[in-house]
Amino acid sequence: MSKPTGVQTLIRPAHEDRLLAVLRERGAMSRADLAQALGLSRTTLSEITSSLLARGALSIVDTDASVRAGSGRPAERLALDPASSQYLGVDFGHRRVQIVIADAAHEIIASGSHHYSDIDGWDTRLACAFELIEREAAGSGIHFGALQGIAIGVPGPYTTVPLVSLREGWGNHEPSRGIDKAFKERFGAPAIVDNNTRFAALAEALGTASEAVQDLIYVRLSDGVGGGLVIGGRLIGGSAGLAGELGHVTAVPEGDRCRCGKLGCLETVASVTAILAICRARGARLDSLEDLRAAVDRGHPTVDAVLHEAGAAVGRVLGSAAMTLNPSIVVIGGEITQAAPVLVEYARRSLRYELSSVAEAMPVLRAAELTDMAGALGGVATLLNRSSLLADYGTAVHAKASIRTTIQTIRSIS
Amino acid sequence: MSKPTGVQTLIRPAHEDRLLAVLRERGAMSRADLAQALGLSRTTLSEITSSLLARGALSIVDTDASVRAGSGRPAERLALDPASSQYLGVDFGHRRVQIVIADAAHEIIASGSHHYSDIDGWDTRLACAFELIEREAAGSGIHFGALQGIAIGVPGPYTTVPLVSLREGWGNHEPSRGIDKAFKERFGAPAIVDNNTRFAALAEALGTASEAVQDLIYVRLSDGVGGGLVIGGRLIGGSAGLAGELGHVTAVPEGDRCRCGKLGCLETVASVTAILAICRARGARLDSLEDLRAAVDRGHPTVDAVLHEAGAAVGRVLGSAAMTLNPSIVVIGGEITQAAPVLVEYARRSLRYELSSVAEAMPVLRAAELTDMAGALGGVATLLNRSSLLADYGTAVHAKASIRTTIQTIRSIS
After folding, report:
1. Which family does it belong to (chains A, B) (predicted)?
2. Beta strands B86-92; B147-154: pairing state
3. Most exposed among A12, A73, B114, B313, judged by the fewest C-beta atoms under 10 Å?
4. A6-80, what's its fold?
């Protein structure tokens, strides 16, 4: 065969992806049936199946001898082999690591979590994660013979660009560098790292209804405040991987100084740490989310006022973001939404005001539905979606290049 | 042939789009060469070319008889026929309509504009537009025999959802309903309508550099304030077509009442109308952008203070949006950026503060590069890109459906 051209290089991943989708939908098929279903030439189809067989994504399950009417050599039938590939999602939180493992049929075949201290370094956290993964895999009889990919969520902001400007204590960016390599060496599969809140946003968009949500804003109120965006059905990273940092949008002009250096960031009034500290500064003795829950249950007026301010700030920031992005759903995550559900109500009021000029733009606002596993689940979803994203990327770039030329032509004659 | 299956229905537009892209890149080709380049079966290729020939998107230009080595019947060669299709972009501003016409080779073959009064109704505006289009087309020898599509930009907010909550005077939404039908009936081609600021954002993203900008926020300061977003290489509409309404993000808490009903929207301090009115209220006699330009040139202190407040508000709103979206470029449009370039500088300072905690996230901030034609150009770009967008849509939906199933499985076992 001749060497693939530029065009073929772009098209190949899209064909592969559709072939896998057809097999996932219909089960085992012969090469001839696949070629017809996909409209591909026998030659092209055969190249694609050879590559997928070599990489263990497909297996030959039987022949069509038993159902075949005519004579001649029976045709092999190909299928996705669920056991032939695995996908690993790992979420490093501030105080625990969570993992999930999915197979080629997109079923979750193992999951688990392990706690550590928030002062433990990355060496300890990695050791915890490796032990957890190997224990859970062994317990479920999983051999990582065909691990296709690993997605690792870390506290944000996370980007592949070195962030020299970041203050110590905001995220765990620099220390978490290199963990993709550590995972790759340990398990022999490609690894990607991203912000765990972004992965959680994807999981919330995929997991909530009969249809995947196309436009969603997710904010998580935890030790810090992070966010993630799904826009037009895609998880958004931004130009340097920094999209979604809702915790560092100014919410209270001239407010308290944030660990990031600015004044009045959302995080200074709406993180769990900030809410507890403000309550204490106003005389309410709260040391934990459990204390907060109890204070909310008995209607503590100071605590209610602090939660009102926090919720209003969350609603203002979400309101600006929603006026900008017009999402159908806005999700507030973090355990505090269970401990103090009234916070979500206060946020809703403030969000409703911000969008009052176009009531039709008011999204559904709700607390997160997924458990602690959201980050790891979103990671797996990213791995499963990766080939489509790449195919899309190729197509989009090609189409846009020609339009850009047009606009440049226009400008030169105008 | 058997009826196309669901899978084939999804795949067909993607094949068509790639075929057109290959012909645009390489020029005339035989069906056999096309089938090989695209990896398609002869049957599939032939179905696609028949459909495109019938729709006038392709034409048969010659045969390969002159370059053919062997014997046998010469093969026909197919090509895009520039004259075989046209695309029309129309932008209705508050005081003028602008049009551009492109051909199948993505070249602009005609353009023009016509002024009307901002109190003229849609009947008058439509009549102006029709007359302009027919005059320009006739002047360039264009016959709309194969007009493939019309994109019509109107002042925002614009959505296909009826906006019962909109105050009179904000945008021209309700009155502009039905103009797509009027265009369709007049020119016999499918028409789409969208916010003209959104189209302008797309044009700015496509037209500014050697590479199309993938992540861009555009805000236009004019009689009102509107915006548009390009995220991940795609123009963003939001769940109800309302994305990008930056003019109605709260910029000054407890500020003046906006025509939309809220207090302190960006538009109340940064539209041209607002800036002139605030200057007058503070004793500076300004009635027009020309007056403003003169006052800026002689360093009028009151005017400078008003522009500082306006620029700071623009920077704050853009800062929140940029912390959320991490764009590489932020563009401020509108004639005021020429009349008062210092406004862009003031916005830059305020934007830089908002992003100071992650200096790497600071986008390039600049005044718009395109002329008055941006809206119409962006409309044409949308038409040219449409088939890719649809192909992308099909792929993405298919891939996501299977991931969603996974996440639902996970939730049921967790």
Report:
1. Belongs to the ROK (NagC/XylR) family.
2. parallel
3. A73
4. Arc Repressor Mutant, subunit A (1.10.10)
pLDDT tens digit string along B45-60?
999 899 888 877 788 8
The answer to whether the CB atoms of A106 and B238 lie below 8 A apart is no
Instruction: Quote the CA–CA distance of A214 and A212 in Å, as a whole number.
Output: 6
Q: Select the residue of A36, A262, A357 nearest B262 (Cβ to Cβ).
A: A357
Residues of B numbered 306-345 whose beta carbons fall under 8 angstroms of chain A's beta carbons: which are they? 316-317, 319-321, 323-328
Tokens of A97: 């690591």
- Average pLDDT of each block of 10 consecutive residues along chain A (414 residues)? 43 73 83 92 91 82 74 83 82 91 81 89 91 93 82 81 58 65 90 90 74 88 93 86 94 93 96 97 95 97 98 98 97 95 98 91 91 86 56 29 38 39
Fold of A215-367: Nucleotidyltransferase; domain 5 (3.30.420)
Return the CATH number of the domain spanning residue range A84-200+374-391: 3.30.420.40
DSSP B372: T
CB contact under 8 A, A407 and B377: yes
User: Could you give the residue ranges of the DSSP H alpha helices within A27-105?
Assistant: 31-38, 42-54
Query: Closest by alpha carbon to B382, among B176, B168, B152, B218?
Result: B152
Helix (H, G, I), strand (E, B) or coil at A225: strand
Question: What residues does B225 pair with on adjacent strands?
Answer: B221
Nearest residue in chain B measured CA to CA from A45: B39
pLDDT at A12: 63
- What does the DSSP 8-state code read for residue A40? B
- Other Cβ atoms within 10 Å of A311 Cβ, number: 26
- Please state the ipTM of this predicted complex: 0.79
What is chain B's mean pLDDT, rounded? Answer: 83
Asked: is B210-367 a CATH 3.90.1150.10 domain? The reply is no
Q: What residues in A contact B194, CB-CB < 8 Å?
A: none
Q: Does B149 touch chain A (CB under 8 A)?
A: no
> Is-contact A125 A97, C-beta < 8 A?
yes
User: Alpha-carbon distance A292 to B298, whole Å?
Assistant: 59
In chain A, where are the structural domains located? Answer: 6-80, 84-200+374-391, 215-367
Q: Quick one: pLDDT at residue B203?
A: 86
Instruction: Tell me what the mean pLDDT of segment B90-106 comes to.
Output: 87
Residues 160-189 of A with CB under 8 A from B: 161, 163-167, 170
Query: Cβ of B212 and A403 within 8 Å?
Result: yes
Two domains, one topology: B84-201+374-391 and B210-367: yes
Contacts 24+ apart (CB under 8 A), A56-59: A56/A81, A56/A84, A56/A85, A56/A145, A56/A146, A57/A20, A57/A84, A57/A85, A57/A104, A57/A146, A57/A148, A58/A23, A58/A84, A59/A84
Fold annotation for B84-201+374-391: Nucleotidyltransferase; domain 5 (3.30.420)
In this prediction, residues B78-97 reach a mean pLDDT of 86
